[in-house]
Specification:
- GO terms for molecular function: iron-sulfur cluster binding; metal ion binding.
- Keywords: Iron, Iron-sulfur, Metal-binding.
- This is Coenzyme F420 hydrogenase/dehydrogenase, beta subunit C-terminal domain.
- With 395 residues, the chain is of the alpha+beta class.
- Among the domains are: 54 residues, 2-Layer Sandwich (Alpha-Beta Plaits), CATH 3.30.70.20; 202 residues, no CATH class.
- 36% of the residues lie in helices and 19% in strands.
- It is built from 16 helices and 13 strands.
- The strands form three sheets. Strands 5-4-6-7-11-12-3-13 form an eight-stranded mixed sheet, with helices on both faces.
- Strand 9 and strand 10 form a beta hairpin.
- Helix 7 packs across helix 8 and helix 10 crosses helix 15.
- The longest helix is centred in the last third of the chain and has 27 residues.
- The chain binds flavin-adenine dinucleotide (FAD) and iron/sulfur cluster (3 copies).
- The site of one iron/sulfur cluster has 13 residues, from helix 3.
């Protein structure tokens, strides 16, 4: 049975739904706009498998061989087109391309954050292209772990990529590692509430008097500073530096990431996947190694299997090794989860009553005057908590 305690720390990975022998778990949205498992009580036989298979209840690391001191690399694809069209350095595409050339199967996220993101498989380069790029919404994984298992049993090579909690979910469903399985996780900032994204887009459309058909990370003017773009139904496009968009400011400041993300048990070294890829934004390395600003990947190789794959990719990748400590220091989320935002509960209370633009203007402001007000507000909330704590202690 799915208990309330499980829901409190649920990542939305979907492993419980894939394991239920009665198929009586569906993933539905909670009031904040995150997918959680809901059990059809009439069909449930109380076997307890869902609880047993929940990755939050298991030591997933016991199932896999991980290097205690993984190596870190700054890397990117030597193929200019792949480099340009990927979110960062195209590491995923090069790994996936290798697996497909070996007649293997690749599992990853497709779709877009407005119409829905979901995991699927690719066996051709055409299918693979749809997996390129980061989609900033939680992907729907229903049925995918079972499908991976059945492909693994055929002996084909499999690459599975996703967020670290999805990698954990896959191992939990499989109950072991497979020699023909390679996993790649992304350095993860957490997943934002889809309800909040849709409210923002609706209000933006009202302001602009036109429909948004696509919202995505845009590398046309370079990888850094990160930019995001809106494509409109009338064929026009607008692109902004990430921090100019109120929705992105709220996401970056963790105002509406999933609650468990700020306690993510996978944001640590060693990482759960064989290979990890993210952005190497810190330390000014980008300017030195990627002067054309197409994107510098931070890669960590976390298992002997991961090393074997990386060695095969050396002809197609630019790769430079650095100490893992440098990578951890220069990445916000390689070794630690996103920070909790004290204003999160207020945000979710206000967003029910007021407009998205109004609420974020106050809670994640761009203007100096509002930033000062926000600081005073945070001090007030922290003091209120302290006083309440003392009162409770005196009782
Ligand atoms: C939600 C999210 C948050 C991220 N946060 C950070 C961060 O804080 N710091 C950082 O350094 N990097 C972060 N990244 C990783 C970064 O954006 C790139 O995905 C990573 O560098 C890989 O880039 P690439 O060029 O190798 O491959 P790309 O081709 O760009 O990556 C595509 C791969 O990412 C997977 N993917 C894309 N969207 C999703 C999704 N919604 N859910 C699951 N898997 C997905 C696909 O399956 C595919 O395998 C994040 C990615 C995502 C999806
Ligand atoms: S207890 Fe068994 S039947 Fe019931 S929801 Fe969990 S896995 Fe499904
Ligand atoms: S298995 Fe995943 S979706 Fe199910 S309760 Fe556990 S964390 Fe949530
Ligand atoms: S931060 Fe952790 S729990 Fe949240 S989506 Fe990323 S991997 Fe999953």
């Amino acid at each position: 049975m799915i208990t309330q305690a499980m829901i409190e720390e649920c990542t939305g990975c979907g492993a419980c739904a894939d394991n239920c022998p009665k198929n009586c778990i569906s993933m539905k949205y909670d009031k904040e706009g995150f997918r959680i498992p809901v059990v059809d009580q009439e069909l449930c036989i109380h076997c307890g498998i869902c609880k047993k298979k929940c990755p939050m209840k298991k030591d997933i690391y016991q199932m896999v061989e991980r290097t205690k001191a993984p190596k870190a690399y700054a890397a990117f694809s030597k193929n200019e087109f792949i480099h340009k069209t990927s979110a960062t350095g195209g590491i995923f595409f090069e790994l996936a391309n290798y697996v497909i050339q070996e007649r293997g199967v690749v599992f990853g996220a497709v779709g877009n954050c407005l119409d829905g993101v979901f995991h699927t498989k690719a066996e051709t380069l055409e299918q693979l292209k749809k997996m390129q790029g980061s989609k900033y919404a939680q992907s729907n994984t229903i049925g995918i772990y079972r499908e991976v298992k059945s492909v693994l049993k055929t002996g084909k090579k499999v690459l599975f990529s996703g967020t670290p909690c999805q990698i954990g979910a896959l191992y939990s469903v499989l109950d072991c590692d497979y020699e023909n399985l390679l996993t790649m996780d992304v350095i993860c900032h957490g997943v934002p509430s889809e309800k909040v994204l849709h409210k923002f887009i609706e209000e933006l459309e009202q302001r602009k008097h036109k429909k948004v058909i696509h919202y995505y990370r845009d590398k046309e003017e370079g990888w850094k500073p990160p930019r995001y773009a809106f494509d409109y139904e009338d064929g026009t496009k607008e692109s902004f530096v990430s921090t100019e968009i109120p929705y992105n400011r709220g996401f970056i400041q963790n105002l509406y990431v999933r609650k468990i993300c700020t306690h993510c048990q996978f944001a640590k070294i060693p990482r759960i996947a064989d290979i990890t890829a993210g952005d190497w934004f810190g330390g000014g390395l980008g300017k030195k190694l990627d002067p054309d600003n197409k994107g510098l990947s931070m890669v960590t190789v976390n298992s002997p299997k991961g090393y074997r794959y990386l060695r095969n990719l050396l002809p197609v990748l630019f790769v430079k090794e650095y100490p893992i400590e440098k990578a951890v220091n220069e990445s916000e989320h390689l070794g630690k989860p996103p920070k909790e935002n004290i204003l999160r509960p207020i945000f979710f209370e206000w967003i029910e009553k007021y407009s998205f633009f109004r609420v974020t203007e106050i809670l994640v402001p761009n203007k100096i005057i509002y930033r000062v007000i926000r600081k005073i507000f945070i001090i007030f909330i922290k003091n209120k908590r302290k006083i309440e704590g003392k009162i409770r202690g005196n009782k």
